[in-house]
Amino acid sequence: MTTLKVGIANYEEMKARTMAVARGERRVSFREPKVWFTSTESFAKVLSAGNRKLLRVIAEQAPGSLDELARMTGKAKSNLSRTLRTMEGYGLVRLERGERGRITPKVAHDRVELDLPLTLSRKAG
After folding, report:
1. Domain boundaries along the sequence of the chain
2. Largest Cα span, the chain
3. Residue 69, C-beta contacts closer than 8 angstroms, at least 6 positions apart
4. Alpha-carbon distance 92 to 60, whole Å?
5. What is the torsional sign of CA 59, 61, 66, 70?
6. What is the pTM of this model?
7. Which end of the chain is more exposed for a tag (fewer CB within 10 A), N or C?
8. For 89-123, how does the pLDDT look when each residue is reduced to its tens digit (9 = 90+)?
9. CATH second-level architecture of 3-115?
10. What confidence tens digit (pLDDT) does each residue in 42-98 have?
């Protein structure tokens, strides 16, 4: 599997970064995060201990449907669906549609790496 590199940036920072790329003023490095969270709190919520356990169950037991995952975990299917859609939005899982519209969750990465600078970078003048 692969490592998903994530970063933390507020809306204004993400917009400025995107606009600089669009104007050709900045190139995106392969080392930079591909997924962005708006706060460390949102990152912690999505990758809480319970959600990491859910990802391990999916990776190790490969449930064939959300119903099967609900039975394995004892969680309500509606709650699983909401949690997995959030995780899908961050690139942590894929929700594949199978026969008769059955949704099968798949873990997309085996690691997450957080890029969290503590100070602003300074460009040499």
Report:
1. 3-115
2. 61
3. 57, 58, 63, 75, 80, 105
4. 15
5. negative
6. 0.83
7. C
8. 999 999 999 878 899 999 999 999 998 878 765 54
9. Orthogonal Bundle (1.10)
10. 999 999 999 999 999 999 999 999 999 999 999 999 999 999 999 999 999 999 998
